[in-house]
Design goal:
Elements (H helix, E strand, L loop, with lengths): L5 H8 L7 H12 L6 H28 L1 H13 L1 H8 L4 H21 L2 H17 L4 H8 L4 H27 L12 H24 L4 H19 L15 H18 L1 H24 L10 H11 L5 E5 L18 E2 L2 E3 L1 H4 L5 E2 L2 H9 L3 E6 L10 H13 L1 E8 L2 E7 L5
Parallel strand pairs: 1-2, 1-5
Antiparallel strand pairs: 3-4, 5-7, 6-7
Helix pairs in contact: 1-2, 3-4, 3-5, 3-6, 3-12, 4-12, 6-7, 7-9, 8-9, 8-11, 10-11, 10-12, 11-12, 12-13, 16-17
Length: 427
Amino acid sequence: MAQRPLPDLWATLGHADAVHGLYYLLLHALFENSGGLDPLLVLRLPSVLAITAATGTLALLAHRLAGPRAALPAGVVFAVLPPVQRYAQEGRSYALVCALIVWATYLLVHAVRAGTRRAWSAYGAVALTACLLHEFAVLALVAHLVPLPGRARRTGALVLTAVCVCLAPLAVLSMRQSDQVAWIGGAGAGALAGFGGVAALGIGCAALLRRSGGGDLPAVALPLLLLPPLLLLLLSLAKPLYVDRYVLYAQAGTALLLGAALDRLLLAGGRIRATAILVVGASVLALLPVTFTLRTPPSRTDDVTAVAAAVRTAGRGADGILYLPARRRVWSLPDPAPFRTLHDLALDRTPSASHTLYGTEAPAPVIRARVLASPRIVVLRDPAGEPVDHTPQEIAKRRVLARYFAECGTRNVLGARITVYARPGRC
């Protein structure tokens, strides 16, 4: 998306992914001015820098709320949290949103203490930028209202209202594109258990800090940890929308509470301090395998490099390729070279030409005729057991393959199946 010409990118956002439009435009500018740099470096560098900035800003926030001793452990805890490490590596907007929410939280604390219009305007500008990068950042602004005293809460509510007004056109446009999140199912037991565990840990840390004089930190951090994911879970009762990365910034609340609590435990001395050191050491050792795994392909949903390599091998002697479902055409976009020798049998218009994410496909009868005219086909499918699409095109693909072709062999890679089909007796 970011490498498309600007007019094509702009036109695509009118049909798809408007919610990520600002991020795509930012990446487009970076790609345009990156010279000969590795595209993966350009893609991932903003996320790395964002989490770096967020870590430093979080330490400053802990310093301001709970004193200088809480700053270092809060920053370190944030940097080693597995979700933070994951999205620091990925070319997505969530690390940037997280950094902006941490910055906005710091500016909010400053605005409450300064009480000036300029301070509140700075907070509102950063908060609005975060929401334009991803609309669910607005849930953090709701959490920001909770700890504010009376007059400051009224001002905060005005800022929230202004942000929502500015965000409204994007929200209306993205609601028209809501079919793009139809893949999201209800929050499963794992997601609920994860949220419950982190919430219990945060509440326990907040209770400890309140007993030991943790300053204003619990009042700011606990709503940031609890409210955004809780509100998103409640919204999901009406329409499934809960995905943990949408509220990645809630990890800032976790880090603030854990860092400040750790500081208090280390100050206690005696057995409490020794126990705290042992728990920290055990936690670091337990996180090491996760840290290393997050830097390997199996930690992701799929491996497009492995898909491309499998297509390069399977495509020898084949003349056509099919994607089941059509959205799996995205696997061919990062490294298109192995796919160029194969005729995309279902494609009508390319993603860029059609101003869509995955391209548009020909009518079902056309696809059927093209498949029947191809003696040997490479088929890219989801892993076994995944639900299938029921559009006329997808039904036609499955039926003609099942009736007129034999499955010659399948290679399973992470998140995908690459199967060669041929006419019976020609495998």
